[in-house]
Every structure is written in C-alpha cells, then in structure tokens.
Amino acid sequence: MLGGMIVGGGLMGCGGADESASRDAAERRSRQRQAAQTDALLESIASQLRTLPEAVQLDLTPPTVVVDSRSSTDGEDIEAVIVRPDGVPPEAPANLLRVPRRNARFRAADVRPDDTIKYFARIGRETQDRLREAGDADIVVMEAFEFRVAQVLSDNDLLIVGGLSREVDTPFRLEVWRNVDDRMEQISSQLAAYARRRDPPVGWQPSPDEAELRQLHERVNQWLRQSGGVSEGRQAEIKRWLKTLPSLEQADPISDLLTVTALAQGPFLVNESREIQQAVWCRDIARRVRGNSASAADQAAELFDWVVRNVALMPSAEASPNLPWEAMLHGRGSAEQRAWVFALLCRQAELTPFVLSVTETNDTTARTLVGVVEGVRAVLFDPQLGLPVSRQPGSPRADASLAELIAEPSILRGFDLPDSPYPVTAEALVDASAWLVAEPFALTGRAAALEKRFSGRDSLVLTVDLEKTAAAVSAALPPSLAVKLWEHPFETLRAKHKLNQGRRNRDIKEFLPFAWRPPLWKGRVLSFRGVKEDAAPKGEVLADPQDDLRAAQVSFMDRTLRPKDKLIATVSSDVKRDIYRRAKVIATYWLATTALERGDYRNAISWLGNSALIGPDAEELRESIRYTRARAYEALGETATAAETLGDSASAQRHGDQLRARWLREATADGSAPNANAPANADETK
Q1: pLDDT: which is higher, 229 or 350
Q2: Distance of alpha carbon 209 from alpha carbon 204, whole angstroms
Q3: Of 217, 343, 481, 500, which one is least surrounded by beta carbons within 10 A?
Q4: Alpha helices in 51-170 (DSSP H)
Q5: Domain region containing 278
Q6: 364 and 463 fall within a common domain
Q7: Is 192 inside any structural domain?
C-alpha cells in the first residue's frame, strides 16, 4: 500500500508538472499568435501608407441643380422671401419660403424634402451676424445661405428645416440642388457642420482619401492596444519643454490636449491620421529631393528650394492658420508656414532644423528665419526671400554660417536693394530668439511607439527628441541664444479652435475643388510621393515601371478637371462654374510645376502659357506662374530671360526675386551662370 501511494504520489507530481508545462506552452503559443497578429497589423499599416494615392475615391457625381432660372415659368431668376406662415405666433421661426413672382414650379420640377436650397441673400452685416449667432443658416460657399427643404407646399412655396429668427422680406435669388451621390451628400454634411459649428476644428476636410484615413486611424489604435500601449518615459521631458511656451489659460481651447498626461498617454486622435499622412508626404519628398551630397547644408538647400517652388509666399495676415499639409496641398503659405514645412522635410531627412525669430530694423516686426545645424555651425534660410542667407545673395547655395553672418555684417548688407534695405542685421541675429520645431503630435507617446516599429523603406520620423535636438542647436548658436519650443504650431492649433465663420467659409471655398474633383487631389499626392522606377528591361512588354510624376500629370489631365471653357459656360450655377474654373486653373498650373519637377522645362513653359492660365480666373496664381516660368528658364540655362522674368515680380517674395535676378545677371556677365540642365523628353500635349 505504501509503495502504491508513493507511486501514486509520483504519478500525481508528474501530472502537475505536465499541466504546468502545457499551460506554459499554451501561453507561449498565445503570445506568439498575438505577436504575429501585431506584426501583421503593423505591416498592413505600412502597406497602407505606401499606397495612399491609390486609395483616392475617384467616383463622384457632383450635385445636380433641380431648380434655377432655366426651370422657371418665365426664364427669369427665381426670387423668394422667407416669412412666417399665416396664423403662427410672432415668436415662431420664419420657415416659409415664398416666391412672390410665382415663377418657381417647385412641384413640377420634382423638388423633394432634404433637397438643398442655395439662397443668394445680400443680407446686411448686422443681420448676417445675428443669423450666425442664432445658428439659423449654414453659409458654406460664397454668399449662398444653405437651407434644407422640409416640405413642398406648392409650386411656389416651401417649408424649410429650422427657419430663421426674423423674416427676410426682400426677395433674393435661389437655386435648389440635389445630391445624387451618397459621397457627395456626406461631403455636403461635413462642410455644413464645419461652417456652422466649427465641427471639427481640425481635420474637417472631406478629402477623397478620407475613408482610407479613417481605416488608418482604426488600425493604428488596434495596433496600439495589441502592442501594449505607450511608454510614459517622456513625461518629464515633455513637461520641461512645455514650460518654455507661454502659460496656457485655463479656458484655452487646446489646454486639455497639451497636458502631460494627454501627450504621454492615450490613443491616436482622429485628426492624427492626417499627421501621419503629412509625415509620409514629407518623407517621400525628402528622399527624392535632398540629393546625394553628404553636406547637411547642401541637402537643406535642396529641401528649402522645393518649399519655395511648391509653396508660394503669401502675407502672414492673409494666410489661414494652416497646418503644413494644408500649405503643401494648396501650394501657398506664410513665411512661418514655409519654415514649418521646411522643418518637417529636414526632420524626415534626419537633419536638425531650428527657427530664429529676428527683430527687424523697424523694431516692430519679427522676421522668421529657419536654419539647419551642420556640426557646430548653422546655416540660415529666409522663407520671406525664398533664398539661403549666403555670401552670394540670390544664389541657391547655403555657404555662410550664422557665426560668419554675425562676424561679417557686410554679408547681410549684400541683401540690400537700392529701394529696399534688407531688414536683418548682425546685431539682430545676436539678440534673436531660437526655437525648436515640434508639434503636439510629435510629443506624444503614441507617435513614439509607432515610429520605433517602422524600419527600412517604411521608416518614418514622427517625433522630435527635444533634448538631443536642443543640444545640437545650442552648440551651433551664440551662447546668448536660449533654445525654446516654437510657439507657432501651438498657436496654429489654438487659432483653428477659434476660427471665425468668414475664415471658415473661405477655407471651404478653397477646398471645394479637391472635394468635387478627386483627380486634383490624387495628382497632388502622387507628385508628393514622386517614386520613379527604372525602365523595364527590353522585351518585358507587360512591365509598367512606376512613375508618380508622370501619373500625376495624367491625373491633372483628367477630363473632369480640364473641360473646354464653352462647356463650363453652359453650367447655370455660379457656384458650380466657379469651382470648375478654379479646378481647371489649378490642374493646369500643376501640370506645369510637375513638368518642372520632372526636368521637362520646355513643357513646363508651354503649360504656363496655356489659355487657362492667361485669363482672370488665374489672377491669384499670376506671381506663382511668373516665378515658375523664371525657374524653368534658369534650369534651361537661359539666365537672361530668367532674370528679366524675375525682375518684373510683384509678389510677396519680390525682394528675394530681385536678388535672384541680380545674381543671375551678374553670373551671366562673368560667365559663372548656372549650367543648363537638359530637359527630359516629354510626350504630354495640350
């Protein structure tokens, strides 16, 4: 019996060990499955980021006009008042839209509930402000108030959803539109929410790749949960650097987003998928543009020149508070926005950028310069001039260090023009403010966690090591300059949360061509990616080497973007005609800039002379067209023509254009003009 018990006990012991080993093995297999799932999810995210341009939703039917002057009984405009229905108390909303001339035919035209009324009311500013405060109308584009049809009462009477707090007794022109595409309905609803309620303040744009970004947001958060969340090791560093910013007021709209806890912990926010896309754009541009030089100054000069060619300067007072991706998309921005885009390109190129704020000689204006560290020296660029601050003013080379600019004041005086002295002095550089460029997202733990997992061709810089960057920048600056965190990214976010309705309406109007004409968006993002594969071996008839810049041009040539003017003229709606014309102008201009990027300089000049860019519709691009034409002539080695073209500049960058023209003339005279670049063979036709 005792022996049996011993044997039994031994058997029981073995059974327990087996169960424990089995549990351990099961746990290992579970962890391995979890790790495999996490890795697979990460690969799907990386693959998604590689192919964002291909995810653009191109199938879109713009809204149709159901009622306008063409459908009226007399061929004249349909004009309506908005009043209270008979018998309702005076405090009730005015929600009856009535056509006094009785020429509307609402029922005969099959107007339906939920159709959109465009009410072109020239209402006084006081009434506009009252309506906006009351939330009675969505002012989405131009001067058209938007209402929804609630009920069709007769051929000349409609009930509208909601109504107004006061009657509008002066008849104004109207149109009735209908969205026949679910996506267009979604676009209209999102724009109305932003126009009316600033909802959301950031990331409101219904871009053609919006569905892909929503999926990206879901995937990165799923990956974050599976990978175990974020490390909280950066909290002390973040807290220390946030103290270099002006103290945030308790009621500040972004104060909750900038707490140490919010930055160090938590999931990806919806708008941060756009920040990831922005980083991808900058990474791809930096890889293509930075060149092969080992010199940080030379690489930075190439990246800066890309910004100048692709983001036209506009006065800071006129610029919306745009994020870098918005400035890149629209192709224009303030000096600060140019500096920000440049800093992001440098970040992806693993350079060390910084910003200097310099008091101009009038002692009332701060000028934004941007620099890059090269060892223990720093080189500067002036986003307002569109030039490096170099020993040869106007030259694209960054060949003067900050220390040399301070020690040799005559270098800066070379940037003076006879009628316009350069408002930066050596003394001002000594007293400048130095800033590190980092956005709230770049300080988050979630960005750091994701960045660590990308490698090889998918490497993506999403964060800034503030301590390391500060040490490198400080070593290259005069000891008198203390390094702090740049306020501009945070001020931009704050401004977006406070943006007034007039600015929101303008931003919506500028974005509509991208929403209504998806090939415009696709062409732009293809031009950012810019991948070009080697030609296929001879005989590989099925091979189709990737050429993104060529594909971008094909996209810009889409028939929906460049219809004949006489076809656009047949569109009855002023709003729709304006969108179509602007889309055509933008697409035509980008055909030229993409040709310039491809090295097809003659074709670029040809596109810049296209009829779409000559008329009044292209007026806002006039100076950009001039600058791009000059750069194409310069690349061809036709420096005299380039200098003459730049000499006529009237842009916000005029001072820099004049300096570049002077440099080209001097270089031509002494035989040191830039070497001509052979234009690429091109088969694009107008």
Answers
A1: 350
A2: 13
A3: 500
A4: 125-134
A5: 230-243+254-496
A6: yes
A7: no
